[in-house]
Amino acid sequence: MSSTLNNTLNRTEQREAEILDAAMNMFAEEGYHAVSTRKIAKRAGVSEGTLFNYFGAKHELMSGLLRAIYAELTENAQAVFRDISDTRARLDALALNHITVMSRDNALFMRLIQSYMNVDISGYTEIRQSVLHELNISYAWVFDFAVKEGMQRGEVREDINISALRDLFFGGLEYGSRSLFLHDAFDQCEERVASLVDPLWQSMRRDADPRAPENASKLDAVCERLESVATQLEKLPT
């Protein structure tokens, strides 16, 4: 690829990023409905025609912002899988990544979601057709991948319902990020993540399954102790 083409691509990517940045700030400051593409173009230092070369409508700017957020989430998740192998540690890192990104610009993100729901779909009945649903589906693999690899390594039970646990994982993190924002408690982020992940992990870890071979001896020992106590009670005078 020639240096001229490289420079052109770099300028194109930079211009697109500048337009998205301008849109993000203006949506946060004034709200989605109060901002026109003309205002966004002026803030980005381009003409409205140039803006439309990159984004055909204001709605596409919204989708672009949402895609950027999820791209960051996914890129960070890939780094987690490269650097961490232990399943519990992976879940902690994935949760911290999610809640940190969502909480960092939470006021903006919540406004984006609200505006998107109002503009892009008619209530929740059409959510499966939305870009937001598409992004959620494409991002959900990070939890499934961590859990399935954990199963292969014998760290996670094989009889768990991954879909249900995924809902609990991301649902808890979404609510947790909003709670941190509402209570201005971002300094408690790591503690909150640990509190959210731990009960989930306790329910899915391999040694939590009483049928697991490593727990069979423990269960037998408990049964033997109960039988011994029962025998002693039978010998007591009535």
How does this model look, in words?
The protein has 238 residues and is mainly α. It contains eleven helices and no strands.
Secondary-structure class:
mainly alpha
Q: Would you list the SSEs in sequence order as H and E?
A: HHHHHHHHHHH
Radius of gyration: 25 Å
Distance between the termini: 95 Å
Helix content: over 70%
- The overall pLDDT, averaged over residues, is 78
Question: How much beta, percentage-wise?
Answer: under 5%
Figure out the total of helices: 11
Regions with pLDDT < 50 over 5+ consecutive residues? 119-127
Shape field: elongated
Q: Based on DSSP secondary structure assignment, what is the total number of beta strands? A: 0
The largest sheet is:
none
Record the SSE blueprint.
Elements (H helix, E strand, L loop, with lengths): L2 H28 L6 H8 L3 H7 L3 H26 L3 H18 L1 H15 L10 H9 L1 H12 L9 H21 L6 H16 L8 H23 L3
Helix pairs in contact: 1-2, 1-4, 1-6, 4-5, 4-6, 4-7, 5-8, 5-9, 5-10, 9-10
The gist of it:
This protein is mainly alpha-helical and 238 residues long. It has helices at 3-30, 37-44, 48-54, 58-83, 87-104, 106-120, 131-139, 141-152, 162-182, 189-204, 213-235. The chain is built from eleven helices and no strands.
